[in-house]
Amino acid sequence: MSVFTIFSLLGGVGLFLFGMTIMSTGLKNACGNNLQSVLEKATKNRALAIMVGIGMTMLIQSSSATDVMVIGFVNSGLMKLTQAIGVIMGANIGTTITAQITAFNLSNYTPLILFLGVILYVFVKRTLIKHIGSIIMGFGMLFQGIIIMKAAIIPLSDSPGFIGFMETLSNPAIALLFGIVFTAIVQSSSSSIVIFQAFAVEGLLSYNMAVYLVIGAAIGSVTPNLLASLTANRNGKRTAMLNLIFNLIRAGILILVINLVPQVLTLIQSLSPNDIGRQIANTHTIFAIVAVLIEVPFADKIITLAQKVIPVKEEETRKLSDRSLLYLNVTESMPCAVALHQAQMEIARMGRFASENLQLSLDAFFNMESEKIEAVKEHEETVDILNQQIADKMVQLRSLTLGRDDLKKISMMTIACTDIERLSDHAENIVEYIDLLKGRKAKLSSFSIQELKDMSAAVMRAVDLSLVIFENDDYSYLDQLENIENSIDNYEDTLIANHVERLMRSDCNPVAGVVFSDLVTDLERCGDHAINIAYSLKERKIY
Questions:
Q1: Over the stretch 447-466, which tens digit does the pLDDT of each residue have?
Q2: How many helices (H) does the chain have, and how many strands (E)?
Q3: Model-level pTM greater than 0.85?
Q4: DSSP-assigned letter for residue 311
């Protein structure tokens, strides 16, 4: 065995992995954002969630990519663990399609596939066709990589050192461990299974060795998800833990079954006699399906176990409660008047979250507390999630038998939701100024800080008063609110004039000056949103 043989093998593996990446990227680009929207919306039913996981992973040829998307949705609160586990289980089945495809011998057609993919990718300007070209090109690279690997493996069969290493895999424990480690390194169970197929086809692996490698590969495939979860919140980390627990239980069940009932392996082999590549592919698929069928009734137990490994903290329970609807849980059976009142209360509740977030952001800014930035962003996520849930409920309310006035009220409340959500957006803007000032080592003068504090106090009075008016339909406070809004406008004119004067005297740091003027604009817009909220259920021109 020469060093060039090893280079050839590594080159084949590299081309295969690159082909997988190109094909996966092309599939995702061709599908656009549709995959994410399907994943987000079609997971209410566990059986449907499993089917979504299967279909999506078959499309993008990567269970890791599916699982990372799931972690992202759970991390942002758009998906619950009870929904995520179904998609994860489905992804474990969907990822087996790669081995099924590569079990075909397409070596004679690979050059043509590559040529067709390159033609579409290089010479066609239409974006969708270019993406399809990259899919075909990646597909061709994948098979060409396998061809190179197989050619490099042939000389290895005469190498005593390599044969000795492969013989160690006859020990099930070593084979299982090797499958885990190897898959963790290549970060793809599909890739490792295909490589194991190539070794088996060339006679370097027996079927029984490959079985344990397949089981180990499923555990090792969780590595990318565990890495992706490092930057996620605790619920995102639990999502990765769900996948790990599922695959550990899967490994235990399968090892138990094949040792107690070895005839199972004989049956799988009989499906494709004399074709070890297809036998390994079938083993991969059947094991995944059996594991899901056995574990899906215990999905809630797996979730509970993940929550014990990463315990649920008190603030997480509070956050989950905050992000759930309190008044609009059931709308179909409510009388119209009651449903509309409940919607009004729910929107007012969302408004209080936005008001608290705005106050939190101002406190963080005036005290330069970077540690509160994440808290403000979490509160902003809460407001966004409530806004989306309320919007969905408002659509349901429109399906009720409503009069013209009630339909108009729903429209006006929907507009109020937008104004409330914008308040929280401004809160996020405000905390971003903290990092800008600290990064540029710029400071606001004590005089300008006091100006901003005075204006902020007026804005918070306006926001809180607007929510009282909205929630209680008490328009006796409108004159008071109008006076506060006029004072906010006056603050804006005065503060900007003072700011220009300081610039003329060169008394103002340029970065601090930009932050000052931007914050004044944010505060003035918050005052406008407060007026809009207060008048949302009353006739008035919107700002």
A1: 899 999 999 999 999 999 99
A2: 24, 0
A3: no
A4: P
